[in-house]
């Protein structure tokens, strides 16, 4: 595939991506509300989605465009010791849920990222957060998988993992930009 074909492929999904606007705005509104109530955002995912989770937290903690105070954002992918200890002792499916047990407070925003929508460890963490006062969102692709049934789910309109991730990072950037503008602009 040529670079131009790749760009055209993404642009052809423009109308489907635009249909996510109301759902993206809902996430933004809930994040802003949570920050105004001194809550935090907790994000996690596997593989490339883990990188997206790290990226989102970096933008919230640091800055997107504006010089401003850092925002409370925790990526559950950062602590290798915790992930490997929990994975080894309790199983890989517990690596996000277990840290949530100690970090989640009522009203915190929880964002799970899974291109398939079926990552068992993401599902278990979202289920825990739902049961314990978290406001849960997920970024998925394909048909949304099982996560669409247990969270407010943004489904990237693609079945191709790299395209799903490209759409996710665009959504993440927009969320971070708007949260920053609303709170500090």
From TrEMBL:
Against Gene3D superfamilies, the record matches this protein to: Glucose-6-phosphate isomerase like protein, domain 1
Signal peptide (from-to): none
What is any one GO biological process for this UniProt entry? carbohydrate derivative metabolic process
- Pfam families the UniProt entry points to: SIS_2 (PF13580)
Which CDD domains does its entry note? Answer: SIS_GmhA
Keyword tags: Isomerase
Could you name the domain of life of the organism this protein comes from? Bacteria
The Gene Ontology terms for molecular function here are: carbohydrate derivative binding; isomerase activity
Which InterPro entries does the record match to this protein? GmhA/DiaA, SIS_dom, SIS_dom_sf, SIS_GmhA/DiaA_subfam
**Which SUPFAM superfamilies does this chain map to?**
SIS domain
Record protein name field: Phosphoheptose isomerase
Taxonomic classification: Bacteria, Candidatus Muiribacteriota, Candidatus Muiribacteriia, Candidatus Muiribacteriales, Candidatus Muiribacteriaceae
């Amino acid at each position: 595939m040529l670079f131009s074909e790749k760009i055209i492929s993404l642009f052809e999904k423009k109308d489907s991506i635009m249909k996510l606007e109301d759902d993206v705005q809902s996430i933004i509104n809930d994040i802003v509300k949570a920050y105004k109530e001194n809550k935090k955002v907790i994000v996690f995912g596997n593989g490339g989605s883990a990188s997206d989770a790290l990226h989102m937290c970096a933008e919230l903690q640091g800055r997107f465009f504006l010089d401003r105070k850092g925002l409370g954002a925790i990526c559950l992918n950062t602590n290798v010791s915790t992930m490997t200890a929990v994975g080894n002792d309790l199983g890989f499916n517990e690596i996000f849920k277990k840290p949530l047990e100690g970090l989640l407070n009522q009203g915190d925003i929880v964002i799970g990222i899974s291109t398939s929508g079926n990552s068992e460890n993401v599902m278990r963490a979202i289920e825990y957060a739902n049961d314990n006062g978290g406001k849960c969102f997920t970024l998925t692709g394909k048909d949304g998988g099982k996560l669409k049934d247990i969270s407010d789910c943004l489904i990237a309109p693609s079945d191709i993992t790299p395209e799903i991730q490209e759409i996710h990072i665009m959504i993440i950037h927009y969320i971070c930009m708007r949260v920053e503008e609303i709170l500090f602009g």
